[in-house]
Amino acid sequence: MNGNLLRKVFGNVGVGRVVGLSSSTLGKGNTRVNGVRSSLAFAGGVAGLKSLAGLQRRQYSASAGETMTVRDALNLALEEELTADERVFLLGEEVGQYNGAYKISKGLLDKFGPKRVIDTPITEAGFAGLAVGAALSGLRPICEFMTFNFAMQAIDQIINSAAKTHYMTGGTVTCPIVFRGPNGYAASVAAQHSQDYAAWYGAIPGLKVISPWDSEDARGLLKAAIRDPNPVIFLENELQYGVSFPVSAEALSKDFQLPIGKAKIIREGKDVTLVSHSRPLNLCVEAAEKLQAEDGISAEIINLRSIRPLDVETIIASVKKTNHLVSVESGFPQFGVGSEICALIMESEAFDYLDAPVERITGADVPTPYAFNLEGLAFPTTDTVVKVARRTLYRKKK
Amino acid sequence: MLARTVFVGFRTANSFQWTKRLLNVTSQAFQSFSKDDAKGEKVHFPGATQSYFTDKMQFIQSIDPISTYRVMDKEGKILDPAQEPRVSEDFAIKIYKDMITLNIMDLILYEAQRQGRISFYMTNYGEEAYIGSAAALDNDDVIFGQYREAGVLLYRGFGLDEFMNQCYSNEQDNGKGRQMPVHYGSKELNFQTISSPLATQIPQAAGAAYALKMSGKKNCVMCYFGEGAASEGDFHAALNIAATMKCPVIFFCRNNGFAISTPALEQYKGDGIASRGIGYGVDTIRVDGNDVWAVFNATRTARQLATDENRPVLIEAMTYRIGHHSTSDDSSAYRSKTEVENWKRLDNPIIRLRKWLENKNWWNEEKENDFRSETRKEILKSFSRAEKLRKPSLTELFNDVYDQPTSNLIEQKKELKRLIEKYPENYKLIKFKNEGNDL
């Protein structure tokens, strides 16, 4: 009962809540191993609260074109794909009558009925297993986890069944399924509700893993994921749901899709490459503006979009141009997405183009604390990114 | 009052909708007040609408044990003629022949493992009567097995060569050499490939059943598992979700007394697995799992409930695992040989059906001997054919991870090709189909 209640409370307070994280000063514990210097983001102070709270509400609208929240982009993609293919159905806790804990499935029950938008009992192993079985039998389920933290209860279904069935049946049985839901850090929900699973799923052959950032990502990649014949992990972020981004006319087309496995350069630059995914890209965008304004540093930003396959070619090409690389994520440092990027760069020709060791910015190596001030210390901030970018370029703070 | 109790603290944009739901729940609950009858006042809480209030405090320790349905006794004699299935001679003989074939195949492959010719095997000894469940299904019904259900495949027409090719993981293995022996699968025969992690197939079976229901087909899913697997969370999740989503699925528990070495009585404290079905609101029956006709009848009726009414059904088939759990197990460490021998001798499902057939004059000693020797020959022939075949092509190492190979897979493949070309003496290429030339 308590678990149920907790989930509900958690689900509700999460919707559209605006909480900023604190600003940072960088920790001193830098280590250098095999040419890679790693920096954990131990941030300090609360001076940056305002600026990040501002970021939450911010609209990333460069032009006067149409804008859309990530939530609406996901909702529309779901609606279109449910309309386009009768085999597609959505299931999970509270996705129907309640419209989803984060309102991603708003209106879908009314439109598609309870056979295709299914409220399940609170049993991740049960509904994820049911979804896998339905996928093996020709349907195309979209399995919503209230958050990816709860998917741990169904991890065997995802890793040992969904990811491996095509291979282990000699290629005769496919498992076209999308597991989606919020991932990564949220606000004031403590360690069991606030962590990034990108590296977990990114390690598994047979899975495709997507981590969208803006509304076009969310829309184009979710549509691609639903149409993909392979099992796809679709890692959303709770704090991004309410953020608005511009969307092009092309992206509003019903057939719009983005290729899975391709990164996007969201800002061109020549001095340093910032590579990131999901919500921490917000920090990169702000940091790049600050670096340009204060230091004249031109930062290039890569939005990975896809964790697996990982578009290492785009990173290599960028490093060859900028000669400096900083990875930015909210996940834990050990065996993280940043670790993999470092390894791939060392194994590639880009290594010879580096003028400084690759820097990793990650979440702190602790379970996410609940207390507001401690939580702020556990994740990177814009200032962390600025500071590390300057360091990798051997610049002093002005 | 109810509203404040249940929904306090829930302030959402959708509070109106909650209120609406709440009103529905409340009005239903209060309707039930008016239904009070001779038994007294009915409970109005939404979670137990069929209950009555009582002023007696009583903890329930047990309910009467669930009976075990049986059609014929150990001697193959029908207990109630009305329960004897009206099947043709051919139909009954096919079931019997498949039980014998399975038995001989187990013997040969078990020995092959002991001789080091295959790496692993699991026998079906003592449980062959589950073939009666396969005989009660339609060929379009989808099977999710655990691992000890080779007889179901045999009944559906999986060829001896297919069994042998899988156990040898040779170039003709449907699974391309990617699975341990006995992890059979066949898309054509609607038999989902066996998956090693225990019990994961149970919720998947509910999902496959949901897919059948959505398609409008009048078919069901049959899901096999053991009483040990029923301790896994997936079993409980599956029964609950199949019941709430009204999935046409039959859960068939082979309660064979042992989960590897753990005896059933240490596996659970309740009345077997069947008692759990009732708790989940699932139609449930316990049968004598060594009585092929009890298994057949129960499955046939279960199938009707599933396909006609979209009701999940649980069948608990009581039996005894005569063989070791697998070739990785030696059961003499935890049970006496005498116990096993007694079961084999006194309650043998194959002998029981044979006696029934002989009573009908459909079978005799001569037919038995002819069929056994013919089958043994066929199996051995197939066995040595499979043993001589090469292993799957090396390219199969990289295929089917995704529908299309990703760039890192292509890279890995290139790397293997480079290494083979550089150090050919270290790769016994002649053992593989295409000898590495298709890399």
UniProtKB/TrEMBL annotation, chain A:
The keyword Amino-acid biosynthesis belongs to this UniProt entry's keyword annotation: no
A GO term, aspect molecular function: pyruvate dehydrogenase (acetyl-transferring) activity
Keyword Metal-binding: yes
SMART domains membership: Transket_pyr (SM00861)
InterPro entries the UniProt entry points to: PDHB_mito-type, THDP-binding, Transketo_C/PFOR_II, Transketolase-like_Pyr-bd, Transketolase_C
Recorded coiled-coil stretches: none
GO cellular component terms attached to this protein's record: mitochondrion
Cellular compartment(s): Mitochondrion
The protein's enzyme class: oxidoreductase
UniProtKB keywords: Metal-binding, Mitochondrion, Oxidoreductase, Potassium, Pyruvate, Thiamine pyrophosphate, Transit peptide
Gene3D superfamilies: 3.40.50.920, 3.40.50.970
Residues of the Transketolase-like pyrimidine-binding domain: 68-243
Catalyzed reactions: N(6)-[(R)-lipoyl]-L-lysyl-[protein] + pyruvate + H(+) = N(6)-[(R)-S(8)-acetyldihydrolipoyl]-L-lysyl-[protein] + CO2
Pfam families: Transket_pyr (PF02779), Transketolase_C (PF02780)
Names of the cofactor(s): thiamine diphosphate
Functional description taken from the UniProt entry: The pyruvate dehydrogenase complex catalyzes the overall conversion of pyruvate to acetyl-CoA and CO2.
The protein's name: Pyruvate dehydrogenase E1 component subunit beta
Organism for this UniProt entry: Ambispora leptoticha
Automatic annotation (TrEMBL), chain B:
Alphabetized UniProt keyword annotations: Metal-binding, Mitochondrion, Oxidoreductase, Potassium, Thiamine pyrophosphate, Transit peptide
E.C. numbers: 1.2.4.4
Cellular component GO terms, alphabetical: mitochondrial matrix
MF (Gene Ontology): branched-chain 2-oxo acid dehydrogenase activity; metal ion binding
InterPro entries: Alpha-ketoacid_DH_E1_comp, DH_E1, THDP-binding
Signal peptide range in chain numbering: none
Necessary cofactors: thiamine diphosphate
Alphabetized SUPFAM superfamilies for the sequence: Thiamin diphosphate-binding fold (THDP-binding)
Catalytic activity line of the entry: N(6)-[(R)-lipoyl]-L-lysyl-[protein] + 3-methyl-2-oxobutanoate + H(+) = N(6)-[(R)-S(8)-2-methylpropanoyldihydrolipoyl]-L-lysyl-[protein] + CO2
Pfam family, one: E1_dh
Primary subcellular site in the record, as a coarse category: mitochondrion
Transmembrane stretches, start-end: none
Similarity remark: Belongs to the BCKDHA family.
Function field: The branched-chain alpha-keto dehydrogenase complex catalyzes the overall conversion of alpha-keto acids to acyl-CoA and CO(2). It contains multiple copies of three enzymatic components: branched-chain alpha-keto acid decarboxylase (E1), lipoamide acyltransferase (E2) and lipoamide dehydrogenase (E3).
Protein name: 2-oxoisovalerate dehydrogenase subunit alpha
Organism: Ambispora leptoticha
Organism lineage: Eukaryota, Fungi, Fungi incertae sedis, Mucoromycota, Glomeromycotina
